[in-house]
Amino acid sequence: MMSRSDRRTTSRGRLTRRALLAGAAGAIGAAAVAPVSGQQAIETTRRPGRGPSEIDQRSPFVTPRRAPSATSSRTPLQDLRGTITPADLHFERHHGGVPEIDPTRYELLIHGLVQRPTLFGLADLKRFPSTSRICFLECSGNLRRGGPDTLPQMVCGLTSQTEWTGVMLSTLLDEVGAGSDATWFLAEGQDAAVMTRSIPMEKAFDDAMVVYAQNGDALMPGNGYPVRLLLPGWEGNSSVKWLRRIELADRPFMTREETSKYTDPLGDGSTVRQFSFVMDARSIITDPAYPRVIEPGWHEIRGLAWSGRGRITRVDVSTDGGASWHAADLQAPVLPKAHVRFRYLWHWTGGPGEIMSRATDETGYVQPTWDALREVRGPRTRYHQNPITSWTVGSDGRVLFGAERLRS
Amino acid sequence: MMSRSDRRTTSRGRLTRRALLAGAAGAIGAAAVAPVSGQQAIETTRRPGRGPSEIDQRSPFVTPRRAPSATSSRTPLQDLRGTITPADLHFERHHGGVPEIDPTRYELLIHGLVQRPTLFGLADLKRFPSTSRICFLECSGNLRRGGPDTLPQMVCGLTSQTEWTGVMLSTLLDEVGAGSDATWFLAEGQDAAVMTRSIPMEKAFDDAMVVYAQNGDALMPGNGYPVRLLLPGWEGNSSVKWLRRIELADRPFMTREETSKYTDPLGDGSTVRQFSFVMDARSIITDPAYPRVIEPGWHEIRGLAWSGRGRITRVDVSTDGGASWHAADLQAPVLPKAHVRFRYLWHWTGGPGEIMSRATDETGYVQPTWDALREVRGPRTRYHQNPITSWTVGSDGRVLFGAERLRS
Asked: What is the pLDDT of residues B31-48, one digit of tens each?
């Protein structure tokens, strides 16, 4: 992972370094200049800056914002680089607002088919062997089909990624003596919606966590402070926030969130996908994207790809609306069930174009087109829509959301 | 990296699961309880919480703070979990305060032994092929020898870790046509100190970056907004912030920061270590640490280890003041020149103890004792002090900094 060749391997190899750099120089219009940097650089050297502080704050020139709707706030993907989302910009989605919880009064009850029903305080949870994991979290309703003037944030901003720390749920279940007859557990939040989901016990003994930290710090209130469930790779609503209760049983609980909501009607209208937890592989180009206007020359197409089933193994990029595809570079380390940053160098010569990305994961699953997805799922499904999306580039350089592709 | 056995292998294997969990249960005093969670959990379900917002804010119950001194602010290591530092808690160290820089007027000049002296604006830098990297940054003055009541933050809080994104410096040097006769370059900041350092060209063509993003977002002002140099694994001051100028030459520039400061007098008093850039392997236990008071039972000893020379390969923990050592678990993925979280389960039976950690990196370098370090470096050195430090545990459970070890 250390060498530059490891970090960028595939598409870069097709260009000679000279061609690339000459192109970049042309594109940015760099020029020889006077031997001293700009006037501002001199100004800022003439007076002391602010002193050390207890907490830093973004520059007044930096104002990334989530896009709030009635029940969610979307991460500004177009403003972010790399793979980590600042915790205060992590998307939020809730059903009864964000409760304010006093951590000294917080308790998690684990009961049902267990030998020792137990209440855990926050300090108790922190005593157990801990684990950290960087992974994405995505809402199953993460597709909005807007018009050409749709930001990446609005297309796909209900996915984010932080480093989570907590205790493996399996450790807590060993502690309480989970019954061998338990096949499902209920996870219940202490928000005003009393959010509840039924989760198969297999997930509990696989990689489910009960987490209390996010990017090193305590969880953000909108992400479940002080404690949430974390089910890596599964739809966000199942990672129940403000977790107050886990009940083990020998059946699913058939809560509101798995009957009237979070089910996917299929094409024939009579059947539904239920307990469709896993988030399939997906990707989105975050730059260039609406509202950028680009000039002819070299551009690094940048985006994010992820899969709830494991590692992303490949991202292909097309610049001609899907007629031809090219492998993008993947930024190491590529972690399982995690956002990976992909990059692909594109020389735009000025004609109309359409750029799009297609993710493949380690199971061989390939992100589908909208038509292929609709054919399988039918027209009435609202969740788990992970189609290839695109950005069109006009001859004037304007980059617009490829809304046409999702019209049906 | 997916399986639990991969995540925690060494020390955990020595305990049976039953012994561990019985111990944990005993330690936290968990007990069977009523079937409904605490009163607060009911209260918060009775009224809607706050709605979605443009930006989240820490819970009012969560108040991590850096510790500011005259010229730096230390990261609160004792409050953090995992490996990522929230950007607003990343340590800062500066020599003339934090300038406020208008990004639209920002320029980086690269000149000297180059074919095409060039000014780059911020947008220009963002156009080049980009790279992201998670790595630590540590001040070479990162040791304070306080008394028993010294927090991890004060012992060792001038190290932090975020994900950085920017352009490889080598890419920019190709762009300007770096001369083959260049052996050093000057990096100059536009703060009131006009911070300058001479850096060998080898580092430029190895892994040096010019970065504009931190944890996805723009750099924090205290960390160089809008652009800083990043020299992974090297002492923090060489990663010049608010970078305004890079000048290539055939010699070091012998600036104030490499003559009167940031040099290490050696034992004989007549020679100094100069251009001692690399940060050697180090570790610190962040929990339990002062001011905690612990009770007998199982405790997970947690800490951070890192090396400027590459990957940490091993961290050993002693609970008896160095008489015996035990391998700690390392949280995957272990990245080069990055903080790694280590963990070791310890059963404290109640007597006096002294806990300490010792890092080993992929070059075979082993973190030294204070005595060994002083023997090599002599008594007058101020920088690059990476000795093993310890926390004593009294029979009353009070955890204190092992100040005695650093008395000399």
From this structure: 444 444 456 778 999 999
Count of CB atoms within 10 A of residue A1's CB? Answer: 13
List of domains in chain B: 68-148+158-266 (3.90.420.10), 282-406 (2.60.40.650)
Q: Quote the pLDDT of residue B269.
A: 65
At a CB cut-off of 8 Å and minimum separation 6, what does B356 contact? B285, B317, B318, B321, B322, B388, B389, B390, B391, B402
Cα–Cα distance measured from residue A115 to residue B240, given in angstroms and rounded to the nearest whole number: 58
CA distance B91 to B231: 16
Distance from chain centroid for Cα A239: 14
pLDDT digits (tens, 9 = 90+) for B307-361: 999 999 999 999 999 999 999 999 999 999 999 999 999 999 999 999 999 999 9
In a 13 Å sphere around the CA of B188, the CA atoms on its Cβ side amount to: 25
Q: Is A353 exposed, middle or buried (0-12, 13-18, 19+ CB in 10 A)?
A: buried
Answer whether A64 touches B (CB < 8 Å): yes
Contact predicate B211/B166, CB 8 Å: yes
Q: Chain B closest CA to A331's CA: distance in Å? A: 7
Interchain pair A216, B81: CB under 8 A? yes
Contact B78, B152 (CB under 8 A): yes
Q: Please check the confidence at residue B5 and state whether its pLDDT lies above 70.
A: no
- How far, in Å, are A21, A397, B104 from residue A294 at the CA level? 18, 5, 18
Would you call B59 an interface residue with chain A, using a CB distance cutoff of 8 Å? yes
Q: Do B53 and A45 touch (CB under 8 A)?
A: no
Angle at the Cα of B96 from the Cα atoms of B91 and B99, rounded to 5 degrees: 80
Q: Is A26 on the interface with B (CB under 8 A)?
A: no
Residue B238 and residue B199 in contact, taking contact as beta carbons nearer than 8 Å: yes
What number of C-beta contacts closer than 8 Å exist between A and B? 427
Under DSSP, the state recorded for B61 is T
Please state whether A309 falls in left (phi above 0), alpha (psi between -120 and 50) or beta: alpha
- Contact (Cβ atoms closer than 8 angstroms) between residue B368 and residue B289: no
Identify whether the C-beta of residue B288 lies closer than 8 Å to the C-beta of residue B14: no
- Can you tell me which residue has the tokens 């995690």? A338
pTM of this structure: 0.92
Chain B nearest C-alpha distance from A271 (Å): 33
The ipTM estimated for the assembled molecules is 0.91
pLDDT digits (tens, 9 = 90+) for B63-110: 999 999 999 999 999 999 999 999 999 999 999 999 999 999 999 999
DSSP labels, A321-362: TTSS-EEPEEPSP--TTS-EEEEEEEEE-SS-EEEEEEEEET
